[in-house]
Amino acid sequence: MQISLKWVNELVTIERTDLEYLIEKLTFGGFEVEEILQVEINNQKTISLDISATANRSDTLSIQGISTEIAALLNTPSKISKYSIKNLNWKEQIDSLCSFVANQNDYSRFLAITVENVTNFTIPEWLKQKLIYSGITPVNNLLDFQNYLLLETGYPFEFYDLDKIYSKLKTSKFNLIITNQKNDEEFFANNNLKYNLNSSILTVRANELPLSIAGIISNKDFCYSNTTKSLLIEASIFNSTKIRQQSRMLGLRTDRSARYEKSIKDSNLVESLYRLISLLKISNPNLTCKLHTVSQTFKQNLHPISLRYKTINEILGPVKESSNNGLTSITTDTITNYLDRLNFTYTFNNSKLIWKVDIPYLRSEDITREIDLIEEIGRLHGFNNFLTRLPKIKTIGIEDYSYQTRKRITSCLLNLGFTELIHYSLVNQTTFLNNSIPLINSLLNDCSNLRSSLLPNLLKTIQENLKQGNSSIEGFEYGHIFSGSSLPEFQEKEYIAGIFGSLKIKRTWSEAPKSLTWFEGKGKMEQFFKQLNILIYWKIYSSSKYSQLLHPYCTAELYLQNQTNLGVFGQIHPILAKKLNVSPELYLFEFDFEQIKNQIQTNKLSIYQEYSFYPKIVKDLSFIIHQNISFEEIREILYSNGTKFLVQINLLDEYRGNSIPENHTSLCLQLIFQSNEKTLQNKEVESTINNLQLLLTKKFNATIRL
Question: Given its phi and psi angles, is residue 701 left (phi above 0), alpha (psi -120 to 50 degrees) or beta?
């Protein structure tokens, strides 16, 4: 909003106020000065400020409103204009004739007057200059009066040609009503565009004749022109929410609707209407006006707000004028002075140091709580005049066990080469899982469902990185997933999920880089749980939840010792990998965070065993075996028959190639023997190895490789 300081000076004395000081006060008061403009008229220069106000301060969107605010900020008395004194009797007469409308939320006040004998549209020279100062080019017709009143008082008026209404109705008597259109209707607006109105659009009507879309735009058939002799002037206050809904529905926004969207109040509506009639009479001395329609809704009684001195000091803190003897708070007299400057009525309890403040109706939208009043005190005193201090905290806080567990898991995954990722918990309907929960009032299609798994978003991240030419990443994420089909069944649980495996790395210097195999990925998961000191069991995957996401033959479920399901680990489904154009050697996992936390808490007492003083003997055992035989079964057989000295079995290598029979695989195991009682002899270990080889040959029909 562009305001002229010369115009403001007519309402509050700022002639001797330094411009920089004024701008500083406005800025700290919440009104940002966008630009300083110099406007020249008749070889005279004047300064105008382009000011932007916050959305909840509709009371300052006029010269009168911003002048009142400047007076409060500068502690300067406001000047009372002459016309505001003259119209007091006029306001009393209108209020006495006003009819109250109950249960009406679309508008708060509606006034209409008829004006006749309008013969001269010429605007005074001083009015023309004020429009120019404010960045508006005069057109020397009734629009200038509308623009001027909008600038000066903040109220948008609508003008209709009264003779055209009489001609259309074929009578001089009609009722003005505000109503919703019952049937579809075509409306020809004064912007030369047609709009189709439905039952949700509010219109102003003369009997059944639509004069305007309420608060937005008038009918083309009843616009005033240079030949207009009589006017119907509408002065109304419409509900801001209703106007926003209509504007959005019609795709139409005007200067008038933009003002209503700010939720203006009717506190000075009658005075503004009187001001308009006074301006029209300057060039039309024989002008006559009659009150046509007056109605308003019942206003809610505003309850006083308690403002406590203790709370003010807790929020704002000490002032900068604190003495060397200690910190000083803002005084009660200063606060009382600020309430007077804001034109708030109040009572003060001197013993309890509490103000009971009655908020003016004009400020009822932005001041509803005690904290809003404290903000007003801070604005007038200047937030820069309070000391900025960091709070003295003795302890940062206590880490709960959930946070400690998350730190431990994060450390383990970072050590394994993972990167932590974060995604939205809202997903679209085209997810890889069909059991996501739809939202009733979603704002976007991409955020219309609650996720039932963390894995789809991880896959999308891999896909997007590859599309952008980036390398694949190995990442993990903590997040909440949702399940259930109806309100009583809905559940929310925290899970941890991850994705890895598509990066090709060298195993030896002589080999080309290769992606992880399923067994190597499984080993990485075992290493993860080993770091957490959690013993897990692997079982064949039997559920259908991840059937479209994970490989049907390379997926397993993980269980704890107490047979509690921990989660799932598997390779990406080959069809999905091809569809997303990602590597088929991707491996995914999703575990229940709560179960991991509980198990870690159960195992929090570490058990140590004495280290053996005797050396280890390490032997390798290579053999070819059918691929349907699980490694777990092989390991159990070896442990049970390898004597008590076989302490550890490690899988060194798994190989399939042209030299290996079909449906078979070559395994190389590392067997570690150690005793706590003596030094083992090679012949003892060799004898055990021979027995194990014979056992593998007979039990599994394995072929020993030398």
Answer: left
pLDDT digit string, tens, across residues 241-254: 899 999 998 999 99
- Determine how many CB atoms are found less than 10 A away from the CB of residue 342: 21
Give pLDDT tens digits for 177-196. Answer: 888 866 788 889 999 999 98
**Could you give the CA distance from residue 262 to residue 154 in angstroms, rounded to a whole number?**
11
How is residue 134 written in tokens? Answer: 């404010």
Reduced DSSP (H G I as helix, E B as strand, rest coil) percent helix, strand, coil of the chain, to 5: 35, 30, 40
- Comparing CA positions, the residue from 400, 375, 405 lying closest to residue 307 is 375
- Cα–Cα distance between 250 and 181 in angstroms, integer? 14
Residues whose CB falls within 8 Å of the CB of residue 498, separated by 6 or more in sequence, listed in order: 413, 418, 458, 474, 475, 476, 477, 588, 589
Reduce the DSSP state of residue 467 to 3 states and report it: helix
What is the end-to-end Cα distance of the chain in Å, rounded? 90
Please state, in angstroms and rounded to a whole number, the distance separating the CA atoms of residues 362 and 268.
9
Mean pLDDT of 299-312: 89
Contact between 43 and 98 under an 8 Å Cβ cutoff? The reply is no
Q: Which residues are annotated as a binding site?
A: 366, 372, 375-376
Q: Do residues 430 and 419 touch, judged by C-beta distance below 8 A? A: no
- Binding-site residues for Mg(2+), in ranges, read 366, 372, 375-376
Q: Is the pLDDT of residue 324 over 70?
A: no
| pLDDT per residue as tens digits for the range 418-472 | 999 999 888 887 666 666 788 887 777 778 888 889 999 999 999 999 888 888 7
Please provide the size of the chain in residues: 706
- Give the tens place of pLDDT for each residue, 365-385: 889 999 999 999 999 998 888
| Chain-centre distance for alpha carbon 125 | 49
Q: Is 109 exposed, middle or buried (0-12, 13-18, 19+ CB in 10 A)?
A: buried
499-523 confidence digits (pLDDT tens): 998 788 776 777 788 888 888 899 9
State the Cα–Cα distance between residues 62 and 153, nearest whole angstrom.
5
SS (H, E, C) 520-537: HHHHHHHHHHHHCCCCCE
Output the CA angle 655-660-665, nearest 5 degrees.
45
Name the token pair of 542: 């039997």
Residue with tokens 């308009």, as numbered in its chain: 276
Residue ranges of domains in the chain, CATH in brackets: 2-79 (3.30.56.10), 88-297 (3.50.40.10), 306-385 (3.30.56.10), 401-602 (3.30.930.10), 617-705 (3.30.70.380)
Is residue 92 pLDDT above 60, yes or no? yes
Token code pair at residue 178: 């505000």
Least reliable range by pLDDT among 42-56, 73-87, 322-336, 581-595: 73-87
Per-residue confidence (pLDDT) for residue 405, from 0 to 100: 93
pLDDT bucket at 641, cuts 50 / 70 / 90 = very high
Q: In what order do the strands lie in the sheet with 209-213?
A: 176-180, 202-206, 209-213, 217-218
pLDDT, position 266: 84
Closest by CA position to 267, among listed 373, 357, 364, 175: 364
Residue 112: how many CB atoms within 10 A of its CB?
Answer: 22
Q: Exposed, middle or buried: residue 16 (CB in 10 Å: 0-12, 13-18, 19+)?
A: exposed
**Alpha carbons 291 and 274: distance in angstroms, whole number:** 12
> Residue type at 248?
R
